Amino acid sequence: MATGREMYLTRQIGEYLVASKLGRMGYVATPFAGNVPMFDLLVADTRGYALPVQVKAIRGQSWQLRADAFLHIEMVDGEQLVRGPLPLLNPQLLCVYVLLKDDERDEFYVFKLGDLQAHFAKSYKGGRRPKNPESMHCAVWPNDLEAYRDNWQLLESSFPHEFTTQPSGVTP
């Protein structure tokens, strides 16, 4: 089991690796000293448009999450019944999941939060949990996210496009 220090370092390394990668791509990426709910970095393009980005890093085999962050789950007689997806605050939130490797050939998976919700809507079945019926634990493995590996163009396409005409009421 990882210690608090190891978990902190894993999170810190992941955030700074993503910030470094984005810097090499020409973006300014700013991490935060404390915990900001929903995102870990603000990423700005050359025009000053900024996007929040959620970063999660692991050294192990899978990212650990809670199904009830994505799905409406009802408990009925000790059984979990999945009633469908929850409304997310920001389904367009960009996520970068990082798999840290000992050889420093780290892997990056870039997707939207709504994509992760769709994964769990398809894969999380609920039912009767043998050890703890109320556990909402779920996990996502790198092979589940393979389609999003090095999907940096998603970030690039998430910034607003240049205006081709002036908005009404604005004179050049």
Rounded to an integer, what's the Rg over CA atoms? 19 Å
Number of strands: 9
Taken in chain order, the helices and strands follow as: HEEEEEEEEHEH
Order of the strands making up the biggest sheet: 1-2-3-7-8
The largest pleated sheet is described as: 5 strands, mixed
**Overall SS class:** alpha+beta
CATH architecture assignment name of the domain at 4-64 and 90-125 and 138-158: 3-Layer(aba) Sandwich
Strand content: 25-35%
Shape: globular
CATH topology of the domain at 4-64 and 90-125 and 138-158: Trna Endonuclease, Chain: A, domain 1
Q: What helical percentage do the residues reach?
A: 10-25%
Quote the distance from N terminus to C terminus: 60 Å
**Helix count?**
3
Mean pLDDT: 92
Low-pLDDT sequence parts: none
CATH class of the domain at 4-64 and 90-125 and 138-158, named Alpha Beta
